[in-house]
Protein backbone atom coordinates (compact mmCIF):
# COMPACT_ATOMS: atom_id res chain seq x y z
CA UNK A 1 0.00 0.00 0.00
CA UNK A 2 1.16 3.52 -0.73
CA UNK A 3 1.38 6.23 1.89
CA UNK A 4 -1.59 8.36 0.69
CA UNK A 5 -0.72 11.58 2.51
CA UNK A 6 -0.20 14.66 0.34
CA UNK A 7 2.56 15.89 2.65
CA UNK A 8 4.05 12.72 4.12
CA UNK A 9 6.01 13.02 7.32
CA UNK A 10 9.78 12.93 7.22
CA UNK A 11 10.93 10.25 9.64
CA UNK A 12 14.48 9.49 10.68
CA UNK A 13 14.40 6.44 12.91
CA UNK A 14 17.21 5.79 15.35
CA UNK A 15 17.83 2.76 17.51
CA UNK A 16 17.03 3.24 21.17
CA UNK A 17 17.54 1.12 24.25
CA UNK A 18 15.16 2.84 26.69
CA UNK A 19 11.44 2.03 26.98
CA UNK A 20 10.34 5.47 25.86
CA UNK A 21 8.84 6.31 29.23
CA UNK A 22 6.47 3.34 29.15
CA UNK A 23 5.15 2.20 32.50
CA UNK A 24 6.56 -1.27 33.22
CA UNK A 25 7.87 -1.29 29.65
CA UNK A 26 4.35 -1.11 28.10
CA UNK A 27 2.87 1.94 26.39
CA UNK A 28 -0.31 2.49 24.38
CA UNK A 29 -0.20 4.25 21.01
CA UNK A 30 -3.50 5.49 19.55
CA UNK A 31 -4.05 5.80 15.79
CA UNK A 32 -4.52 8.80 13.56
CA UNK A 33 -6.85 8.59 10.57
CA UNK A 34 -5.51 9.00 7.03
CA UNK A 35 -7.84 9.01 3.97
CA UNK A 36 -6.74 6.61 1.24
CA UNK A 37 -7.75 8.72 -1.75
CA UNK A 38 -10.21 11.55 -2.37
CA UNK A 39 -13.51 12.61 -0.82
CA UNK A 40 -15.14 9.19 -1.22
CA UNK A 41 -12.24 7.36 0.31
CA UNK A 42 -11.44 4.45 2.53
CA UNK A 43 -9.81 5.61 5.75
CA UNK A 44 -6.86 3.84 7.35
CA UNK A 45 -5.82 4.08 11.01
CA UNK A 46 -2.06 4.61 11.34
CA UNK A 47 -0.32 3.69 14.60
CA UNK A 48 3.28 3.49 13.39
CA UNK A 49 5.37 5.56 12.94
CA UNK A 50 4.57 8.06 15.69
CA UNK A 51 6.55 10.93 17.13
CA UNK A 52 7.52 8.99 20.23
CA UNK A 53 8.28 5.72 18.46
CA UNK A 54 9.19 4.99 14.87
CA UNK A 55 9.99 1.28 14.83
CA UNK A 56 9.13 -1.91 16.71
CA UNK A 57 11.92 -4.26 15.73
CA UNK A 58 12.16 -3.71 11.97
CA UNK A 59 8.41 -2.97 11.72
CA UNK A 60 8.26 0.64 10.57
CA UNK A 61 4.69 1.20 9.33
CA UNK A 62 1.32 -0.08 10.61
CA UNK A 63 -1.95 0.78 8.82
CA UNK A 64 -5.21 -0.80 10.02
CA UNK A 65 -8.46 -0.44 8.10
CA UNK A 66 -12.10 -1.55 8.15
CA UNK A 67 -14.44 -3.18 8.35
CA UNK A 68 -15.48 -0.91 5.47
CA UNK A 69 -18.53 -1.30 3.26
CA UNK A 70 -16.99 -1.18 -0.22
CA UNK A 71 -20.27 0.11 -1.72
CA UNK A 72 -19.86 3.25 0.41
CA UNK A 73 -16.09 3.80 0.41
CA UNK A 74 -15.21 2.46 -3.02
CA UNK A 75 -12.84 -0.04 -1.43
CA UNK A 76 -9.11 -0.08 -2.09
CA UNK A 77 -7.82 1.24 -5.39
CA UNK A 78 -4.11 1.96 -4.99
CA UNK A 79 -2.54 2.61 -8.39
CA UNK A 80 1.10 1.78 -9.26
CA UNK A 81 3.58 3.37 -6.87
CA UNK A 82 7.21 2.68 -5.91
CA UNK A 83 8.99 1.27 -2.86
CA UNK A 84 12.63 0.91 -1.82
CA UNK A 85 14.45 -0.55 1.17
CA UNK A 86 11.49 -2.36 2.73
CA UNK A 87 9.17 -5.34 2.71
CA UNK A 88 5.38 -4.97 2.63
CA UNK A 89 3.28 -7.44 4.61
CA UNK A 90 -0.41 -7.70 3.67
CA UNK A 91 -2.85 -9.39 6.08
CA UNK A 92 -6.64 -9.46 5.62
CA UNK A 93 -9.49 -10.30 8.00
CA UNK A 94 -12.26 -9.86 5.39
CA UNK A 95 -12.33 -9.25 1.62
CA UNK A 96 -9.91 -9.83 -1.22
CA UNK A 97 -7.24 -7.65 -2.86
CA UNK A 98 -5.53 -8.09 -6.23
CA UNK A 99 -1.76 -7.48 -6.20
CA UNK A 100 0.41 -6.76 -9.25
CA UNK A 101 4.09 -5.85 -9.17
CA UNK A 102 6.95 -5.05 -11.53
CA UNK A 103 8.84 -8.22 -10.61
CA UNK A 104 6.16 -10.14 -12.52
CA UNK A 105 3.95 -11.25 -9.64
CA UNK A 106 0.16 -11.26 -9.89
CA UNK A 107 -1.52 -12.61 -6.76
CA UNK A 108 -4.55 -12.34 -4.51
CA UNK A 109 -4.49 -11.27 -0.87
CA UNK A 110 -7.06 -13.30 1.08
CA UNK A 111 -8.01 -13.59 4.76
CA UNK A 112 -5.60 -15.69 6.79
CA UNK A 113 -2.95 -15.72 4.05
CA UNK A 114 0.12 -13.50 4.11
CA UNK A 115 1.62 -11.82 1.05
CA UNK A 116 5.13 -10.47 1.60
CA UNK A 117 6.69 -8.29 -1.10
CA UNK A 118 10.37 -7.39 -0.89
CA UNK A 119 11.05 -4.04 -2.54
CA UNK A 120 14.81 -4.19 -2.07
CA UNK A 121 16.57 -1.88 -4.53
CA UNK A 122 13.23 -0.85 -6.05
CA UNK A 123 9.82 -2.15 -7.14
CA UNK A 124 6.44 -0.77 -8.20
CA UNK A 125 3.09 -2.37 -7.44
CA UNK A 126 -0.66 -1.83 -7.22
CA UNK A 127 -3.39 -3.10 -4.89
CA UNK A 128 -7.09 -3.13 -5.78
CA UNK A 129 -10.00 -4.76 -3.94
CA UNK A 130 -11.81 -7.26 -6.15
CA UNK A 131 -15.36 -6.71 -7.52
CA UNK A 132 -16.66 -9.54 -5.33
CA UNK A 133 -15.48 -7.83 -2.14
CA UNK A 134 -18.32 -6.25 -0.15
CA UNK A 135 -16.44 -5.66 3.12
CA UNK A 136 -12.75 -4.84 3.39
CA UNK A 137 -10.90 -5.24 6.68
CA UNK A 138 -7.22 -5.83 7.37
CA UNK A 139 -3.75 -4.44 7.99
CA UNK A 140 -0.90 -3.24 5.81
CA UNK A 141 2.54 -3.44 7.42
CA UNK A 142 6.03 -2.41 6.36
CA UNK A 143 9.36 -3.85 7.47
CA UNK A 144 12.61 -1.89 7.09
CA UNK A 145 15.43 -3.84 5.45
CA UNK A 146 18.85 -3.74 7.14
CA UNK A 147 21.71 -2.08 5.32
CA UNK A 148 23.15 -5.36 4.11
CA UNK A 149 19.87 -6.39 2.43
CA UNK A 150 18.22 -3.20 1.29
CA UNK A 151 19.60 -3.44 -2.27
CA UNK A 152 18.48 -7.04 -2.89
CA UNK A 153 16.44 -7.90 -5.95
CA UNK A 154 12.66 -7.55 -5.61
CA UNK A 155 10.84 -10.69 -4.50
CA UNK A 156 7.43 -11.98 -3.43
CA UNK A 157 6.23 -14.76 -1.10
CA UNK A 158 2.80 -16.15 -0.24
CA UNK A 159 1.97 -18.35 2.76
CA UNK A 160 -1.26 -19.67 4.29
CA UNK A 161 -0.32 -20.47 7.90
CA UNK A 162 -2.27 -23.30 9.53
CA UNK A 163 -4.27 -22.42 12.64
CA UNK A 164 -2.89 -23.47 16.02
CA UNK A 165 -5.29 -23.49 18.94
CA UNK A 166 -5.82 -24.13 22.63
CA UNK A 167 -8.44 -23.46 25.31
CA UNK A 168 -10.11 -20.17 24.39
CA UNK A 169 -7.63 -19.12 21.69
CA UNK A 170 -6.58 -19.64 18.07
CA UNK A 171 -3.56 -18.24 16.24
CA UNK A 172 -1.95 -18.04 12.81
CA UNK A 173 1.78 -17.37 12.73
CA UNK A 174 2.68 -15.70 9.44
CA UNK A 175 6.26 -14.61 10.29
CA UNK A 176 8.77 -16.04 12.74
CA UNK A 177 8.04 -18.52 15.55
CA UNK A 178 5.29 -18.56 18.16
CA UNK A 179 3.21 -21.18 19.98
CA UNK A 180 5.31 -24.01 18.53
CA UNK A 181 4.78 -22.97 14.90
CA UNK A 182 7.41 -21.48 12.58
CA UNK A 183 6.56 -19.67 9.35
CA UNK A 184 8.65 -20.58 6.28
CA UNK A 185 8.52 -17.00 4.95
CA UNK A 186 12.01 -15.49 4.70
CA UNK A 187 12.87 -12.17 6.36
CA UNK A 188 16.13 -10.24 6.54
CA UNK A 189 16.01 -9.59 10.30
CA UNK A 190 14.42 -11.75 13.01
CA UNK A 191 10.69 -10.97 13.06
CA UNK A 192 7.44 -12.12 14.60
CA UNK A 193 4.00 -11.69 13.05
CA UNK A 194 0.87 -13.52 14.19
CA UNK A 195 -2.90 -13.14 14.38
CA UNK A 196 -4.35 -14.23 17.74
CA UNK A 197 -8.07 -14.73 18.50
CA UNK A 198 -9.11 -14.76 22.17
CA UNK A 199 -12.48 -15.74 23.56
CA UNK A 200 -13.96 -13.42 26.19
CA UNK A 201 -12.09 -13.69 29.49
CA UNK A 202 -9.25 -15.77 28.04
CA UNK A 203 -5.69 -15.15 29.23
CA UNK A 204 -2.89 -16.45 27.00
CA UNK A 205 0.78 -16.51 28.00
CA UNK A 206 3.06 -16.34 24.96
CA UNK A 207 6.65 -17.52 25.26
CA UNK A 208 8.65 -14.87 23.39
CA UNK A 209 12.27 -13.99 22.73
CA UNK A 210 13.45 -11.60 25.49
CA UNK A 211 15.65 -9.82 22.93
CA UNK A 212 12.52 -8.76 21.03
CA UNK A 213 10.38 -5.70 21.50
CA UNK A 214 6.72 -6.31 20.67
CA UNK A 215 3.68 -4.51 19.36
CA UNK A 216 0.12 -5.72 19.96
CA UNK A 217 -2.33 -4.21 17.46
CA UNK A 218 -5.89 -4.64 18.75
CA UNK A 219 -8.43 -5.19 15.98
CA UNK A 220 -11.52 -5.97 18.08
CA UNK A 221 -12.28 -6.13 21.79
CA UNK A 222 -10.06 -4.95 24.62
CA UNK A 223 -6.85 -6.65 25.69
CA UNK A 224 -4.73 -6.33 28.82
CA UNK A 225 -1.07 -6.59 27.80
CA UNK A 226 0.99 -8.34 30.49
CA UNK A 227 -2.09 -10.11 31.82
CA UNK A 228 -5.05 -8.98 33.88
CA UNK A 229 -2.86 -6.60 35.88
CA UNK A 230 -1.31 -5.13 32.74
CA UNK A 231 -2.03 -2.13 30.53
CA UNK A 232 -5.38 -2.09 28.69
CA UNK A 233 -5.42 -1.60 24.93
CA UNK A 234 -8.74 -0.82 23.23
CA UNK A 235 -9.76 -1.58 19.65
CA UNK A 236 -7.40 0.06 17.10
CA UNK A 237 -4.69 0.77 19.72
CA UNK A 238 -1.11 -0.47 19.35
CA UNK A 239 0.47 -1.58 22.63
CA UNK A 240 4.27 -1.48 22.78
CA UNK A 241 6.12 -3.92 25.07
CA UNK A 242 9.81 -3.29 25.67
CA UNK A 243 12.49 -6.02 25.39
CA UNK A 244 13.45 -8.07 28.42
CA UNK A 245 10.38 -10.27 28.90
CA UNK A 246 10.35 -13.98 28.06
CA UNK A 247 6.56 -14.15 28.44
CA UNK A 248 4.03 -11.76 26.89
CA UNK A 249 0.59 -12.31 28.41
CA UNK A 250 -2.61 -11.21 26.67
CA UNK A 251 -5.94 -11.14 28.51
CA UNK A 252 -9.23 -10.51 26.71
CA UNK A 253 -11.96 -8.50 28.41
CA UNK A 254 -15.70 -9.13 28.47
CA UNK A 255 -15.84 -9.55 24.69
CA UNK A 256 -13.84 -11.71 22.25
CA UNK A 257 -10.69 -10.05 20.95
CA UNK A 258 -8.52 -10.25 17.86
CA UNK A 259 -4.96 -8.91 17.80
CA UNK A 260 -1.87 -8.91 15.64
CA UNK A 261 1.34 -9.59 17.57
CA UNK A 262 4.42 -8.06 15.94
CA UNK A 263 7.99 -8.25 17.17
CA UNK A 264 11.70 -8.19 16.54
CA UNK A 265 14.96 -7.10 18.17
CA UNK A 266 15.56 -3.33 18.19
CA UNK A 267 16.56 -2.48 14.63
CA UNK A 268 19.91 -0.90 15.51
CA UNK A 269 20.16 1.27 12.37
CA UNK A 270 19.00 4.78 11.53
CA UNK A 271 16.69 5.09 8.53
CA UNK A 272 15.05 7.97 6.68
CA UNK A 273 11.49 7.17 5.63
CA UNK A 274 9.57 9.51 3.32
CA UNK A 275 6.48 8.68 1.25
CA UNK A 276 7.07 5.09 0.05
CA UNK A 277 10.85 5.10 0.35
CA UNK A 278 13.12 3.83 3.10
CA UNK A 279 16.66 5.14 2.73
CA UNK A 280 19.61 6.29 4.80
CA UNK A 281 20.01 9.94 3.80
CA UNK A 282 18.30 12.99 2.31
CA UNK A 283 20.24 12.59 -0.93
CA UNK A 284 19.22 8.97 -1.31
CA UNK A 285 15.52 9.71 -0.90
CA UNK A 286 15.78 12.60 -3.38
CA UNK A 287 17.35 10.20 -5.90
CA UNK A 288 14.60 7.61 -5.37
CA UNK A 289 11.95 10.26 -6.00
CA UNK A 290 13.71 11.49 -9.17
CA UNK A 291 13.99 7.93 -10.50
CA UNK A 292 10.27 7.39 -10.03
CA UNK A 293 9.28 10.73 -11.56
CA UNK A 294 11.40 9.93 -14.61
CA UNK A 295 9.05 6.99 -15.22
CA UNK A 296 5.77 8.86 -14.67
CA UNK A 297 4.48 10.39 -17.92
CA UNK A 298 0.95 11.57 -17.19
CA UNK A 299 -1.20 8.45 -17.10
CA UNK A 300 1.59 6.28 -18.48
CA UNK A 301 4.35 4.53 -16.53
CA UNK A 302 7.50 4.24 -18.63
CA UNK A 303 10.08 1.53 -18.20
CA UNK A 304 12.76 2.47 -15.71
CA UNK A 305 14.40 1.69 -12.38
CA UNK A 306 11.19 0.59 -10.64
CA UNK A 307 9.75 -1.32 -13.60
CA UNK A 308 6.03 -1.63 -14.41
CA UNK A 309 3.46 -3.95 -12.79
CA UNK A 310 2.28 -6.74 -15.07
CA UNK A 311 -0.83 -6.00 -17.16
CA UNK A 312 -1.60 -2.91 -15.08
CA UNK A 313 -4.63 -0.85 -16.21
CA UNK A 314 -4.32 2.01 -13.68
CA UNK A 315 -2.20 5.15 -14.21
CA UNK A 316 0.75 5.64 -11.83
CA UNK A 317 0.72 7.79 -8.69
CA UNK A 318 3.15 10.74 -9.00
CA UNK A 319 5.43 11.39 -6.04
CA UNK A 320 4.45 14.31 -3.81
CA UNK A 321 6.72 17.35 -3.65
CA UNK A 322 9.65 17.18 -1.28
CA UNK A 323 9.68 19.57 1.69
CA UNK A 324 11.33 22.96 1.06
CA UNK A 325 14.15 21.95 3.34
CA UNK A 326 16.62 19.17 3.88
CA UNK A 327 15.01 16.06 5.29
CA UNK A 328 15.71 16.26 9.01
CA UNK A 329 15.83 13.84 11.86
CA UNK A 330 12.81 12.98 13.93
CA UNK A 331 13.60 11.24 17.19
TrEMBL record:
UniProt biased composition (Pro residues): 312-321
InterPro entries assigned: Pirin, Pirin_C_dom, Pirin_N_dom, RmlC-like_jellyroll, RmlC_Cupin_sf
SUPFAM superfamilies for this protein: RmlC-like cupins
Stretch list, region Disordered: 1-20, 307-331
Domain Pirin N-terminal stretches: 43-143
Domain Pirin C-terminal: start-end pairs: 195-294
Family listed: Belongs to the pirin family.
The protein's name in its UniProt record: Pirin family protein
